Amino acid sequence: MTSLSDIETPAAVVDVARTQRNIARMQDRMNALGVRFRPHIKTTKCVAVADRQRTAGASGITVSTLREAEEFFAAGYDDILYAVCIAPHRLGRAQALRDQGCRLKILVDSLEAAQAVVEAQAQRDPFEVLIEVDTDGHRSGVGPEDGRLIEIGRILHSGGATLGGVLTHAGNSYELNDPEALARLAEQERALSVRAAERLRAAGLPCPVVSVGSTPTALSARTLDGVTEVRSGVYVFFDLFMTNVGVCTIDDIALSVLTTVVGHQVKKGWVIVDAGWMAMSRDRGTARQRRDYGYGIACDVNGKPLKQELVMIAANQEHGILAAASGRLASPEERFPIGTRLRILPNHACATGAQFSEYRAVTKNGIETWRRFNGW
Amino acid sequence: MTSLSDIETPAAVVDVARTQRNIARMQDRMNALGVRFRPHIKTTKCVAVADRQRTAGASGITVSTLREAEEFFAAGYDDILYAVCIAPHRLGRAQALRDQGCRLKILVDSLEAAQAVVEAQAQRDPFEVLIEVDTDGHRSGVGPEDGRLIEIGRILHSGGATLGGVLTHAGNSYELNDPEALARLAEQERALSVRAAERLRAAGLPCPVVSVGSTPTALSARTLDGVTEVRSGVYVFFDLFMTNVGVCTIDDIALSVLTTVVGHQVKKGWVIVDAGWMAMSRDRGTARQRRDYGYGIACDVNGKPLKQELVMIAANQEHGILAAASGRLASPEERFPIGTRLRILPNHACATGAQFSEYRAVTKNGIETWRRFNGW
């Protein structure tokens, strides 16, 4: 049977048991809160993972690109929310998906984009459109009290589009690490998106969907009254960044990069491995968190963290440098001889996964290869 | 004719005229210094670019993975230096390339790896092996005065391997930004690698090749006496990081990411574009340099920097946030309406290119699509 000692490195390794546990944890939570769960597949871009999310009870998927929508529609997913405000030049490509039977929902947060949607659909089937609401000043969206919210709704509704509802993403949750602060932001995300929906309804406009989400708020919300669906992506694998946010532990992280020791600098206590930033990604998100994990921390080939913690302190394109988290690693060449296999837990599962075209999924019965894709 | 206003975004755009100028600049310099030039194709992983480097006078290529060696051998390149210390499990794959006629050179910096090479080639054709020398404490390599240098050479030579020479990479040049300091490091790189070669020769061992290089030192060396070849990669496109090092100007940068405006936050003066870190990469290398360029700076669709400089101050997976480098951008929605196309100059051409599977090469006659690849 193929083992992690046989395959080429670097490789993106998925611990399937942990993945299943993460999927169950989130789905159970959403069931208890009484909302639909629409996983964001941008984290994995992998049908094999999404199939497990669907089997556990997920309802539809969220995507960040039309390429994701096209790939997943071809794989049998037809309830797809494209959660990035639509660029007008993409409306034809979006319409083509709808023409094939895909229940694609698109997003706008401006009068201009709403107008472009209405114009593009003239004499075609209507688009289903959600309005992005800004509930935390993170990035995109129209404020829940902004007059443009109703204007956008009216342009869409009177122009014949199907007004699907409102959507928000409390991305500022990534900056937090305190359970109470996370719960407060989750409540803010809930309350302000429900407020936006109520304003639309009060203006006589339909607003069936109230869609919220981010992994930290989804795992911190105490009630989701008025919310109809939650979106979340990275929870499926988790990562070191999320341990610092406080919504998972090291033992929940289901993605790691398998690597091979190719050298040492004995006097410095360094172990040189063949996973550089091309494998780990350049993500250094933990640098600004309470614990900086460098480019990741090392586990043995079975995924167990090493007793003396080794951190990837630097990465070049195809080289990673591992050093002790504290002190100096003695006799690195004896403890980790050339050819030794290690697994590196990543800062950010979305970014690290994106460096690969496939996952090596470790199951009870051996290693499966799960295709993932990139591109737009 | 297809234009940059028609193609899907984000896209990796190559300015072919600038690329040709960068190629000519480096090759002319190497010719003047009297050394062979072996470009590192890890930056582009693109045969169309390497063909231009070869036409300009390059001699062989450098690679960072066996996948690169295999792809380029299939494309007609047979003089290939694999410049990462070999992991023993890869020796079979390396041998397979040699069996097909590829003049693949491999690298070691330890007794263990040298021994593994000798054992793997028993009853096979000999490997051609270079020894990595550490000339600046950057990463890998054996010190030029280290007794193991000669030991490694003896293991290889007596074991029947072809001892090809020594190789060094003064990666610390990336930390500098002063022409004198760069010239000093280039001289250190030269002198210490030549010293290592002389020690091998004095021990009766062959050392025909002395291979040095990094883009900053290659462009800063005043003499290369005793050096036989130079390697350099990122010079072909340059990037914002290299402008901070001081070896190029903004006008030399040949790679940019084409993006579309998808929204605004008017009060904040933000322009939201569809190039996030999935397109730019997570590389924030300029954060520790004299000028921090965020995730990149914006040009118009023709590649001309904007009069009021816009910096990508934040990036999510598929969103970039552009803001004025100083002050607040007034009326962003009027100056950069939804649908506007911009081009973002990247921090690091190697990392940004790696986010794409093809380049859109802008020539005098229109846009060509140049394939690039990733993976191992």
Q: Describe the biggest sheet of chain A?
A: 9 strands, mixed
SSE sequence of chain A, one letter per element: EHEHEHEHEHEHEHEHEHEEHEEEHEHEE
- Residue stretches of chain A low in confidence (pLDDT < 50, at least 5 long) are none
Separate helix tally of chain A = 12
N- and C-termini, Cα separation of chain A: 36 Å
Return Rg of chain A in Å: 22 Å
Assembly type: homodimer
Can you give the helix content of chain A as a percent range?
Answer: 25-40%
Categorize the overall geometry of chain A.
elongated
State the fourth-level CATH superfamily of the largest domain in chain A: Alanine racemase
Provide the CATH architecture of the largest domain in chain A.
Alpha-Beta Barrel
Q: Quote the beta fraction of chain A.
A: 15-25%
User: Which pair of chains has the greatest number of interface residues, and how are they split between the two chains?
Assistant: A-B, 56 and 56 residues
Number of self-contained structural domains of chain A: 2
Q: How is the CATH topology of the largest domain in chain A named?
A: TIM Barrel
Q: Give the integer mean of the pLDDT values of chain A.
A: 97
- Tally of DSSP β-strands of chain A: 17
Structural class of chain A, by secondary structure, is alpha/beta
CATH class of the largest domain in chain A: Alpha Beta
Give the arrangement of secondary structure elements.
The structure is a homodimer of 376-residue chains.
Chain A: E1 11-15, H1 16-33, E2 36-37, H2 47-55, E3 61-63, H3 66-74, E4 79-82, H4 91-99, E5 103-108, H5 111-120, E6 128-132, H6 147-158, E7 162-167, H7 179-202, E8 209-212, H8 215-218, E9 229-230, H9 240-245, E10 255-265, E11 270-273, H10 277-280, E12 297-299, E13 310-315, E14 320-324, H11 332-335, E15 341-345, H12 349-353, E16 358-363, E17 366-371
Parallel strand pairs in A: 1-16, 2-9, 3-4, 4-5, 5-6, 6-7, 7-8, 8-9
Antiparallel strand pairs in A: 1-10, 10-11, 10-15, 11-14, 12-15, 13-14, 16-17
Helix pairs in contact in A: 5-6
